[in-house]
Amino acid sequence: MTVWSELTGQAEAIALFRAAASFQPGSAGDAARADAAQAASESGAAASGPANQMTHSWLITGPAGSGRSNLAFAFATALLSGNPDGDEATAAQVTARSHPDLQVLTTEGVIIKIADVRETVRRSHYSPSVGRYRVIIVEDADRMAEHASNVLLKELEEPPERTVWILCAPSEADLLPTIRSRVRSVRLRVPTVADVAELLVKRNDISPELAERAAREAQSHIGMAQRLATSAEARDRRQETLTTALEVRSVSNAVLAAARLLAIAGADAEAITEQRDAQEREHTLRSLGIAPGQAIPPALRGQIKAMEDDQKRRAKRSLRDGIDRILVDLSSLFRDVIMLQLGRTDAVINRELEGKIAAAATRSTPAETLVTLDAITTARHRIEANVAPLLALEAMLVSFRRG
C-alpha cells in the first residue's frame, strides 16, 4: 500500500502530486519548473505543464466530500518522507499530526482567527528539522476573513525557501484573487458513486448494496457516505428528514417541520461531537495529572475553560454543518421530484422513497418544484448570513406546501 491507496476518483491529481513529490530541490531545473508552475497557476490549469512541477504554494479545490484534506495530507506525507509514495513511519506521524515539520491550520469554529494565521506564518519560517520541507496545510481556507487572508498573502509573496503551503477550499472563488495568483491550483472532480461504494466496501467490509446506497444518498460525498454506511441512526435521521419535508401541507405543518428538522440537525451534530468531547476532556485531565472525579485545582481551571470554549465553538459549527447537510439532502429530494415530473426515472437518488416521491410529483408542476429548489438555496444563503436557522427553515418550508 502507498499513501495514495485510499484516495478514490482523483487519478490525475495523484499523478501530479506524486511527480511533484519526486522533485529534488536545488536541481538545475528548479527555477524553470517553479516559473512553469506559476504560469500554470495563472492560466488556471489543473494539471498541465511538466510532469514534475514543484512550487511553494498549492491550492486544492473541489466540492465537499471530494477528498481535499485527505489528498493534502497524502501529499504532505510524500513531501515529508522524501518518497513519492510515502512511508509508514511518516504516514503515522502525519495522521497523528505529530510530525515536527508539519503544521496544520484549521478551525473547529465558523472562521479561522487572524491570531492563528499569524502564529502559523511565524512558524512557517522554521527550518525543516528532519526532512526536505516544512509543510503547512490550511484546511477550509475559505473560512479566513479578508484581514486574515491578507496576513497569509504577505507570506505567499515572500515564502521561506523550504516551506510548502497547501491550501484547501471548495473553489478558487472562495479566496482573494491576489492569493489565487500566487498558488498552483489543482481541481478535484467528484468521484463516481461506484468509486465511493468500492472504497466503502474495501475500508469498512460492508455489503456492496449498503455501500452503493450510502454513496448514492451522500451524492459521492466520501465522509458522509462513510457515516451513512456505518451508522443506522444516521440513515434513519436522513430518512426522517425527507419524509418530514414531503408531508408539509400547510403553514402550521411548515412551522412544526422546521422545528423537527432543527432537532434532527442537533441530534446529528451531538452524535458527532459527544464522544469526541468526552475523549478530549479525559485526555486533557489525564495530561494535567487530574484523576477521574478529582476536583480541578484553581490554577488549572483556565485551561479546562479554554477547552470547553473550543468544544462549544465546535458544536456550533457542527450544528450549522448538520443543517447545511439537511438542505443538501432536501435538494436531492426535490431534484428527484422534478426528474420524475420530466419523465426521467433512471437517475433517482432517493430510490428507497421512490413511491412517495412519485406521489409528490403528481401534486405540483415542474415550475413549482423549481420554486422549492430556489427556496432551499435561499435558506442556505440566509443561514450563511447568520439568519436564525429556525426562521430560515420555516420560510423555506412554507414553499413546500402541496395540496
Molecular structure report:
This protein is α/β, with parallel strands linked by helices and 403 residues long. 58% of the residues lie in helices and 6% in strands. The protein has helices spanning 11-21, 30-43, 68-81, 88-95, 114-123, 146-157, 177-180, 193-204, 208-217, 222-230, 232-246, 251-287, 301-341, 354-362, 366-384, 389-398; strands at residues 57-61, 102-105, 134-138, 163-169, 184-187. The chain has a five-stranded parallel beta sheet, with helices on both faces. Helix 3 (68-81) packs across helix 4. The termini are far apart. Mean pLDDT is 86; it is low at 27-51.
Task: Give a short summary of the structure.
The chain is of the alpha/beta class and about 400 residues long. It has helices at about 10-20, 30-45, 70-80, 90-95, 115-125, 145-155, 175-180, 195-205, 210-215, 220-230, 230-245, 250-285, 300-340, 355-360, 365-385, 390-400; strands spanning about 55-60, 100-105, 135-140, 165-170, 185.
